[in-house]
Amino acid sequence: MRSEDIAKLAGVSRSTVSRVINNYPDIPQKTRDKVLKIIEQYHYEPNTSARVLAGKGTNTIGFFVVSLAEQHNVNRIYQNNYFAPFVDAVIDTANAAGYYVLVHTVYSKEDFVKVKQAFLQKRIDGGIIVGTQKDIDTVRDIGGLGMPLVLIDYDIGEIMEHHLDQNHLAIVNSKDYEGATAAMEYLIGLGHREIGFIAGRLTTFSGRQRAKAYEDALQRHGLPVEEAFRLKGEFLKQNAYDEAIRLIRSGRLPTAIFSANDDMAIAAMEALKEHGVRVPDDVSVIGFDDVPVASQIVPSLSSVRLPIYDMSREAVNKIVGMCEAGLSSFGTSSFPTQLIQRDSCRSLR
Amino acid sequence: MRSEDIAKLAGVSRSTVSRVINNYPDIPQKTRDKVLKIIEQYHYEPNTSARVLAGKGTNTIGFFVVSLAEQHNVNRIYQNNYFAPFVDAVIDTANAAGYYVLVHTVYSKEDFVKVKQAFLQKRIDGGIIVGTQKDIDTVRDIGGLGMPLVLIDYDIGEIMEHHLDQNHLAIVNSKDYEGATAAMEYLIGLGHREIGFIAGRLTTFSGRQRAKAYEDALQRHGLPVEEAFRLKGEFLKQNAYDEAIRLIRSGRLPTAIFSANDDMAIAAMEALKEHGVRVPDDVSVIGFDDVPVASQIVPSLSSVRLPIYDMSREAVNKIVGMCEAGLSSFGTSSFPTQLIQRDSCRSLR
DNA sequence: ATGAAAGCGCTAACAG
DNA sequence: CTGTTAGCGCTTTCAT
C-alpha cells in the first residue's frame, strides 16, 4: 500500500495525500476527512525511507553507550549499574517525545565507526553519547559531521579548547565535583582523617571530577595524602576488588574509603568482608551513583545520588530541540547530586 | 557526498560504485581499488534511506519491551531486573552481527501502535518482542504483517490454536516449568510442607508456567493447598511487598515461600524483616531469574537462573536468519534453567 | 485548493 | 566488465 493507492481510492492526487499526512493548512476539512478515512481503513503508513529521502527527518535518535574498558567482559553493560538506567531513561523519554531510538554499544575503537556510520548513513537525526573518553578526536569526528550531538558527562573545557563547532552540540553533566566533595566532607565530618580513594576511569569527565574533589578535600583539611590509599578501579568491580585485596594485604588500612562509584564500593566491601574487615566498624565506605542495590546490601551503602532520569530527559530534550527547530542550544546543563547517608559509614567521634 | 560524486571522482559510473559497495563479483580488482580509495578518502557512506528504497534491507531490528503493568511507575524498566539484561544482551548480540537495534518500550496498549508503525513504515527488517501478554490480537496484528518476528516468552500453543502464519515467526523460551519445579522440589527436599507462592503476571507465559509448576508440585507430593499462601504479585515489587505484609498480619505463615521472580522475593524478604520474621530461620525464600542482586543481599537469595544471554542470542540469530535468508525457522527454542542454592533456604530436617 | 512533475540517492535489470 | 535507464515511495515547488 503506497500513497498512490490511497490517492486513487480517495479520488485525489498523491500530493493531496501527502498534504493530509503532513498536516498542511490549506486543505478543506472535507478532503482531509475523505483521505484520512481511506488511510485508516487500509492501515496505511508512509514508508519512512521514502519520506527521509524526500527531505523529512528520520524521527530517530541514536544513543551510544561507550564503555571501552569492558571490551573483554562477556556480561557487559547489563552488569553495569551506571549505564543501564541511562539506556532506559533515554528510551522512555525519547519514545514519549515521539522519537525512535537506535541504541548502540561501543566497546572498542572500531565500534566507533558504527557510530559514525549511523550519522553518515543518515539513519538518525542526531545522537546522544554517554561515557565518552577524554578523546577529542572522537568528539571532533562525530561532532564534525554537523549533526546534532549531545554528550553526557563530558568536559566543556575540551570543546572550547579545541574550538569545536558549537551550533549543534550540547553537554549534560551532573555536579560530580560537588557531589564528591559532599561525600568527603561527610567522612571528614565523621572524624575520619585517613581516607582512601578508589578511582574511576580518569579518561571520563566524571572520573576526573570525583578524583579531584577527593584530592582537594584532603588538601583543604590538611589531611595526609597516602599514595598507598589511592586505588585504581577504572569504574570496574573486578579492578576494585583486586586493588582492595592488595590494600588489605599491605597491612595498613585507612579508616574510610571513598569509591568513585557504587559498583566498586560494593566490590571492595566484599573483599573487606572476606578478609574479616568489618564495615563500618573497621572501615567506613561511601560510594557514588546510588545504584538500586546500594540500599539493599548489608550494611546499606552510603552514596551520592545521580539524577540520571533528569539528565537523560535533558539530553533528549536538547537533541530533539536541535533536530526539530535547529535550535543551537550550546552549553552545559549540570544537575545537582544528593548525599545519601546509610549504614556503611560510622562516626569516629 | 553521493555515489555520483564518487563515480565522477573515480571516473566510473554510479552503477560501478554501487557494485563495489555491494561486493559484486564481476568487477576487476583494479576498478574496485580505485573506487574504494575514493570512498575512503571522502569518508563516503551510502544513504540508508536510498538503499532501502531501492530494495535493500534496513539492517535494523526492532526490540520491543512490553511491560503493561508498569504503566504508572516512573522508574520503569530500568528498575526492572528482568528486562534490563535482555535489552543489553539483544543490543550486544545484534550489534556484533552487524545490525542496528531500535529499542522501544511498551507501557500501554497505545504504545503498540508505535510497534506496528515501526514495521509498517519499514523502519526495521524484523522485530523481537519480550514480555508479550497472552494477547493473541497483538501477536496476530504484528505477526500478520508478514515480517520476521521473534517472541521471547510466549506460549506456542496460542500460535497453533489461532493458526497464525508461521513462516516468519519464532519463539524463544526458557524452561520455566522445569525451573520452577526444581525450586519446589528443592524446598520439599528440605522438608518444607507448607509452601507459599508469590505469583507473577499470569498473562505472561513464564508467569503461568511458574504458577503451574508450583501447583503441580504441591499436588504431586500431596501437600496442602492453602489459598491464603498464594499471593498475587504481578511480578512487581510493590505488590509483593503489600501482599507479604498482608500474609504476615494474617498470623499464619508458611515455612517457605517460592516467588515467581527475584524482585518480588526480595520485596517479600524486606517485609518479613521489617516485621521481625527471620529468613531463613523462620521462613525460607526462593526466587526466580537469579538477578545480579540475588547474590549480594543478606541472606543471599536462592534462585533459578535464567539463561538470558543465550535466549537473547538465539532470538537475534533467528531474526537475523529470517531477515537475511528468508529462513522460515518456525519452532520454539527452550533454554534450560539452573537452580542456584544460597542462604535463604534452610532445611527443616 | 489541487494536480503534474521533478527529484531525493541508491540498486538492478538490461544492453552492449 | 561497465554504462544507461528505470524505478523505489514520498515531498514539494510550480502551475493552474
TrEMBL record, chains A, B:
Keywords: DNA-binding, Repressor, Transcription, Transcription regulation
Keyword field contains Protein biosynthesis: no
InterPro entries named among the record's database cross-references: HTH_LacI, LacI/GalR-like_sensor, Lambda_DNA-bd_dom_sf, Peripla_BP_I
GO MF, one example: transcription cis-regulatory region binding
Sequence ranges assigned to domain HTH lacI-type in this UniProt record: 1-55
PANTHER family referenced in this protein's UniProt entry, alphabetically: HTH-TYPE TRANSCRIPTIONAL REPRESSOR PURR-RELATED (PTHR30146:SF148), LACI-RELATED TRANSCRIPTIONAL REPRESSOR (PTHR30146)
This protein's name: LacI family transcriptional regulator
